[in-house]
Write a structure and sequence with these properties.
Layout lengths: L9 H7 L1 E4 L5 E7 L3 E2 L7 E2 L3 E3 L1 H8 L18 E12 L2 H5 L6 E16 L29 E9 L1
Antiparallel strand pairs: 1-2, 2-5, 3-4, 6-7, 7-8
Length: 160
């Protein structure tokens, strides 16, 4: 969200915002008016009318390091989730077939899938519940994590 890459930021990024002039003079419809007032010395401020780049709407509310209270509260989420961690489908070879080999007492073959999908998550779209950093100043921040990986395997178990 802070970088303006999440699906929720598409509206302004795709040119549906207010007209905005960049410092180099180019123009695009990527502007927004942020909530607030303009200090004019009177007892009540006038409503803000300044159009700024929509980047400030997301960076200021999702990744800012400013001292404004609650400025990053938009990026604080409850991280509750459930996942299908492992699924195994096993076929046990019937004992009458195994006994004919004279080698095995039991034999089974399994197809195994790990980290297949999330059953539910309270996080917004595209956030990985397990992609949260851990122990330094970035504790609890999703930053530069590796993508989730599904794996599939085959297992053969034999008893002699």
């Amino acid at each position: 969200m802070g970088q303006g890459e999440a699906p929720e930021t598409v509206h302004e990024r795709d040119g549906h915002g207010l007209p905005f002039t960049f410092p180099d003079g180019t123009k695009a419809n990527v502007g927004v008016i942020l909530p607030g007032v303009v200090a004019d010395g009177s007892t009540s401020g006038k409503p803000n009318t300044a159009v700024v780049n929509s980047w400030w709407k997301y960076a200021g509310n999702y990744q800012s390091w400013s001292n404004v209270p609650l400025v990053r509260s938009n990026s604080i989420f409850t991280n509750s989730w459930g996942k299908l961690r492992e699924l195994a489908l096993t076929y046990r070879i019937p004992p009458n077939l195994i006994s004919k080999t004279g080698i095995f007492q039991n034999l089974s073959v399994s197809l195994i899938g790990r980290d297949l999908f999330y059953l539910f998550t309270t996080l917004p779209d595209r956030l990985n519940p397990e992609g949260i950093n851990g122990t330094s100043n970035t504790q609890g921040i999703q930053w530069a994590q590796l993508p989730g990986v599904r794996s599939f395997g085959l297992s053969v178990k034999a008893g002699f």
